[in-house]
Specification:
Length: 295
C-alpha cells in the first residue's frame, strides 16, 4: 500500500483517504458544502460556549452580550437593542444560520464576527483554515484591518490576485484603486456581478490617471507614458492591454453593451475574471510607474 493518504488533507475520513469513498470535490463559487457548514458551526459553538456564564441557567454576561448585539445587529441591519441575547435563542440562531442560510449571508455573518473588536485572532484563523482545507471557493483575507472573504477560482489564482491587491494597497499611490477593488469584492460576494466588474474597471482607471492625468477616459495616455519611459517595450503587449481595456470601456464593450442594461448579461465567472485581471493590471501599472519615477 502506498503512503498516498499521508499527502491528503487530515480532515478526510479513513474511507476517503484509502479510496473506499470518493474524495470531496472542490467547491464551486456560491457554494458552501454541508461538511464546511458543520465545521463552521462547531467552531462558532465552541467560541460561544467559552463566552457563556452560569447561574440557574446559561446566559451571556454584559461584555459578551454586547458583542452578540453588535455582530447580529450589524448582520441583520437592526438596532442593537432589538437583538435577543437569551442564551438558547442565540445558540439556535447561529446554528440555523450556519447550517441553512444562503452562502452569501453566512459569509456576511462570518465577516461580522471576524471584524468585531472582541474576536481574537484564534477564532479568525480557525475559520480561515476551515475554508482552505475544505477547498472552498472563498478565502478569508485577514491581511488588512478589515477582514473580508475573497472569491477565488484556484489557490494559485487566489495567491496571485492577493499579491496584486497588496501591491496596489501598499503602494499608496492610488488609494482610489484600493477602494474600487474592495467594493468590487463586496459586489461580487453579494451577487451584483455587473457592479463588481464596473468597480474593477474603475480601479485600473484610477491607476492610469496617476500615471497620466490625460488617461481620464481611456488607457492609451498612460501606456504611451510608460512606453516613452522605455518601460513598456513590447508593442504587442501594449496592443493587448489596449484591446482588453477597450473591450471593457468602449461603446461596444462590456461596460456599455452589458453593464448599462437593467439586467446585465454577466455572471460570477465574468466578474471573478475581471477582478483578478484588473487587480493584476493595476499592480503592473503601479510597478512600471514606480520604476519610471526612480530613473
Amino acid at each position: 500500500m502506498t503512503n498516498y493518504c499521508d499527502e491528503l488533507p487530515d480532515h478526510l475520513t479513513f474511507s476517503q483517504r484509502y479510496g473506499y469513498e470518493p474524495l470531496p470535490e472542490p467547491m464551486k463559487l456560491e457554494e458552501i458544502s454541508s461538511d464546511l457548514r458543520r465545521e463552521i458551526w462547531n467552531a462558532t459553538r465552541e467560541f460561544l460556549i467559552e463566552k457563556r456564564s452560569y447561574g440557574h441557567t446559561y446566559y451571556f454576561a454584559n461584555r459578551e452580550a454586547r458583542m452578540i448585539e453588535r455582530i447580529v445587529g450589524k448582520f441583520l441591519k437592526i438596532s442593537e437593542n432589538k437583538v435577543p441575547i437569551d442564551y438558547s435563542k442565540v445558540m439556535l440562531y447561529f446554528e440555523t444560520t450556519c447550517s441553512s442560510s444562503p452562502f452569501n449571508k453566512l459569509l456576511e455573518l462570518l465577516e461580522a464576527f471576524a471584524n468585531d473588536r472582541n474576536i481574537g485572532d484564534e477564532f479568525v484563523e480557525r475559520i480561515k483554515n476551515l475554508f482552505e482545507i475544505h477547498g472552498a471557493a472563498y478565502r478569508l483575507d485577514s491581511s488588512q484591518r478589515t477582514r473580508r472573504f475573497v472569491p477565488i477560482a484556484s489557490k494559485e489564482q487566489a495567491e496571485a490576485t492577493q499579491k496584486a491587491v497588496e501591491t496596489v494597497e501598499q503602494s499608496g499611490v492610488a488609494p482610489g484603486a484600493t477602494t474600487h477593488l474592495r467594493q468590487s469584492v463586496e459586489h461580487l460576494n453579494a451577487g451584483r456581478y455587473a457592479d463588481s466588474i464596473r468597480e474593477s474597471i474603475h480601479a485600473v482607471e484610477s491607476v492610469a490617471r496617476v500615471i497620466d492625468p490625460e488617461a481620464n477616459k481611456e488607457l492609451s495616455p498612460a501606456l504611451d507614458s510608460l512606453e516613452r519611459a522605455e518601460l513598456l517595450k513590447h508593442r504587442a503587449l501594449k496592443r493587448g492591454f489596449k484591446n482588453l481595456f477597450g473591450y471593457t470601456s468602449d461603446e461596444e464593450g462590456v461596460r456599455h453593451a452589458l453593464l448599462e442594461r437593467d439586467a446585465a448579461d454577466v455572471d460570477v465567472d465574468d466578474a471573478l475574471f475581471m477582478y483578478g485581471a484588473c487587480a493584476s493590471f493595476a499592480a503592473y501599472l503601479i510597478n512600471k510607474n514606480q520604476k519610471a519615477s526612480s530613473t
